[in-house]
Amino acid sequence: MARVFMFYSRLRAEEKMIIEAAKAREIPLESIVVSDLAWPNDICQRKDVALCRCIGHRQNLALALTLEAKGVITINHSDVMNTCSDKIATSSKLSIAGIPQPDYAVAFSLEGTLKCVEKMGYPVVLKPPVGSWGRLLAKVNDKDALEAVVEHKLHLGSQHSAIYIQKYVDKNGFDIRATIIGDCPVSAIRRCSNHWITNTARGGEAQSYPLTDDLKKLLVDVQRAIGGKLLAVDVFETYNGYLVNEVNGQPEFRSSHERVTGVDVAGKIVEMAWTLAQKSDENDF
Amino acid sequence: MSKFVNCVVCEGKVEVSDELLEGEIITCPDCGSELEVISLDPLTVAEAPEVQEDWGE
User: What Pfam families does the entry give (chain B) (predicted)?
Assistant: First the structure.
């Protein structure tokens, strides 16, 4: 019979919540720290389901690839991790699917960046293509600052050699964080801050936000475009409608806690993984 | 019964929960260092690694 695993490197609040949710539902979940093991190994067998929860993108991707080579069903699949861990890849997939997002551009030099921003107009936000928790974001209001920031970026190594530029969106002090499990949007919160960066990892306050039909439709479109069984989508609410800012493929969901959203996100994740395991027994993949 | 582990930074005594899990981060009340639980039997902690560039969601 197919089993459900959770592999992790650091036990965050989310992994604890998943363990507790499995216990409460009497779902047999095997939780394993990846750090000192040799990979690949025989822990998982073909058709087992694995929640990949390493805190670092690189390790999580390597874990998923190793498991997938053995026929294990990973949440999320490495293809989804690759898309979500790179903002350029995410924007590209959203563009292909015609999903509204802030204007963006990519440049490889100061000259290229100046051309992009000249076309786009100030202010802009420069983001590392690979990065999380709002780290190293720079809101740039004028050419002097742009030249300085880009010069610094180009000295930070190859991870910063492609510059992702996004048109700054005035979001009225909040953005929306919505969670999709399986192919269903399950919860949304508003993340509020006086700072233009509203990540809860950077101090943004979580409040409930209605999962309206319009928002649900957008989220379903995002899931179809990106794939994956567990996504967190960051959305701006603007006068012209919703814009998808980012899609997270290994989400932290402590701020979408049941006391804010009325939804047990960890419980739904465990149930989804358990259902997949049962289905994988029935189907020959 | 309370369980304790010695902080690897300041050697202070850190009280830990019976429900402690491998990979969990605890904080030394004396020096404030973050400690990662690397083994439950025997209970062993190491200084938690600094945040790396690709960490996060």
Answer: Zn_ribbon_LysW
The DSSP bridge partners found for residue A125 are A139, A166
Q: Considering only alpha carbons, which residue of chain B is nearest residue A32?
A: B22
pLDDT given at position B55: 85
Structure confidence at residue B1 (pLDDT): 63
Under CATH, what is the fold of the domain B3-47? Rubrerythrin, domain 2 (2.20.28)
List, in order, residues 6 or more apart from A214 with CB less than 8 Å away. Answer: A241, A242
The partner residue sitting opposite B57, judged by closest CB among A8, A35, A132, is A132
Extended strands (E) in chain A: 4-8, 29-33, 49-53, 73-75, 104-107, 124-127, 138-140, 163-167, 174-181, 184-192, 205-208, 230-238, 241-248
Q: pLDDT below 70 — which residues of chain A?
A: 284-285
Q: How far apart are CA A135 and CA A224, in angstroms?
A: 28
Nearest Cα of chain A lies from the Cα of B20 at a distance, in angstroms, of: 10
Q: Which residues of B touch A53 (CB under 8 A)?
A: none
Tell me which residues of chain B have a pLDDT lower than 50.
none
Q: How far apart are CA A30 and CA A27, in angstroms?
A: 10
- Beta strand B13-16 pairing with B3-6: antiparallel
Kindly report the number of other CB atoms within 10 A of residue A113's CB atom.
24
CB atoms within 10 A of CB A109: 12
Choose from A55, A199, A200, A250 for mutation: most chain B CBs within 10 A.
Answer: A55
Q: What is the ipTM of this complex?
A: 0.80
Spatial distance between the Cα atoms of A208 and B33, rounded to a whole number of angstroms: 34
Q: Does B36 touch chain A (CB under 8 A)?
A: yes
